[in-house]
Amino acid sequence: MKIKLKRIKHMDNEYANLKERILSDYEKKGKINVSDEEIDKVSEDVIWKDKCINIDVDMDYVNEIAKSEMPNNQKNAAYAMLFQNIFNNEELNLPTNLVYDRYLWTYLNLTIFKKAIYIIYFEKDVQTCKGKNETLKKDKVERYYFNECDPSKLDRTGFRFNWYMGEILDAKNHEERCKTAFEFIDSVKAIGERTLSNNYNILNAYVDAIIKNNKNSKFKDKELRKVIPAHINCCAAVLMYDAYEYDELVDIIANEQMAVIQSS
Q1: Cβ contacts of residue 161 below 8 Å, gap of 6+?
Q2: Long-range contacts made by residues 129-137, C-beta under 8 angstroms, separation at least 24?
Q3: Tell me: the pLDDT tens digits for 41-80?
Q4: Can you give the pLDDT at residue 152?
Q5: Helices 72-87 & 175-183, crossing angle to 10 degrees?
Q6: Domain ranges of the chain
Q7: Whole-structure pTM value
Q8: Could you give the 3-state DSSP secondary structure of residue 54?
């Protein structure tokens, strides 16, 4: 399915009113009630090299992932690989800063990905709240659909985050690395949020080191998933990790990870 790439005109009053209606409907009914036509009215074309951009999206596969029995971390990894193939292929090869635009993702989230996002991130919440007669919280809708929230959470949430992680990990060429990163996502996020965030080599080496350490379950430990990245961050600053060849870097990080695990 060919989709013309658009972005939300987020300063538009009509968009602000539409957003408030969507949030209100979710709180009352537990549904994301908006049509593609309504979103198109508050959107503008994304232009690259003086041309509109058309992306090719297999919608059957998008929804197949969402409806599958896989745990959410595996679904997120599958989307990371899919999104990289959509935006970073030989035909398009779009620059990262263009695709990183959160209002581009708001457009996609509220149109072609609306159903999949609801199934993965909201369906259980709605069922649980109805069962307990609790009020649905609209802040999650703001994060996952509108890409609007506390800045500390903005880059760690939803499909935009999945795409960005896929870019960093070169997911389409490194499937195991991608799946491992999302399996141990709290530890991997902790590396990405530190001063190493712009050093893709170190983040990739961190994930490959997890694989080298046989995906030790301690990486998911409530405390160690914070302590291990903090330790690696300190080592990187002191030992100048940038100076090492990649394979050597993976070995060094794997050894440091295991040293923390064994001392715990």
Answers
A1: 155
A2: 129/30, 130/30, 135/27, 136/26, 136/27, 136/30, 137/27
A3: 999 999 999 999 999 999 999 999 999 999 999 999 999 9
A4: 58
A5: 140
A6: 1-173, 184-264
A7: 0.91
A8: strand
